[in-house]
Write a structure and sequence with these properties.
By secondary structure, the chain is an all-alpha fold. The chain folds into 2 domains: 51 residues, no CATH class; 79 residues. It is 75% helix and 0% strand. The chain is built from 7 helices and no strands. Helix 1 crosses helix 3. Keywords: Membrane, Transmembrane, Transmembrane helix.
């Protein structure tokens, strides 16, 4: 026979095949000496592995020695025991906020849509005002430049005063 069932023998030994697949494997095993020999070899290996596995016992105290060797502690050293006191109030506040948002969701949506409309209209009004007066635009650009320069000088002095190592200006 040219198509053998080597890939199904492990599943056959572990009773993982469907009834029809199991019948097909058994019919093939009745006619194929090579697959029958392979099944016999696999069964022998499985028996040897199980025998070897069940004959091995760990020495007394082996688990404790391994745990001590890898440094595993039941309570981590770097975590303080009183750090969980904040967990309950935090969860309570988050639950309260969630409930408020769910209950007040429609009102918050209406309020936020009104605020977006107000902001949109204010942007248009200021855009119209600024667009019609070139001196205002020039003044704002100049003020922005002055603020940026003043901020950079202030940051430079703060970094020098604090001894920041990267400040070699």
């Amino acid at each position: 026979m040219s198509n053998h069932i080597e890939d199904q023998l492990s599943a056959y030994m572990d009773n993982e095949l469907t009834e029809t697949e199991r019948q097909q494997v058994e019919e093939h095993l009745d006619t194929c000496l090579a697959c029958s020999a392979l099944l016999s070899d696999l069964s022998g290996i499985k028996t040897q592995v199980f025998t070897a596995y069940h004959s091995i016992e760990a020495p007394e105290g082996f688990e404790d020695k391994v745990i001590n060797a890898i440094g595993f502690n039941a309570t981590p050293v770097n975590v303080s025991k009183g750090s969980n006191w904040l967990l309950f109030p935090l969860i309570s506040v988050l639950c309260f906020i969630t409930i408020v948002l769910v209950v007040m969701g429609s009102y918050l949506f209406k309020f936020s849509s009104i605020m977006l409309k107000v902001a949109y209209n204010l942007i248009h009004v200021f855009g119209d005002i600024l667009g019609s007066h070139t001196y205002i635009i020039a003044g704002l650009v100049g003020l922005s430049i002055v603020l940026i320069v003043a901020s950079s000088i202030s940051i430079k002095h703060m970094l020098k005063a604090s001894g920041f190592k990267g400040a070699n200006w």
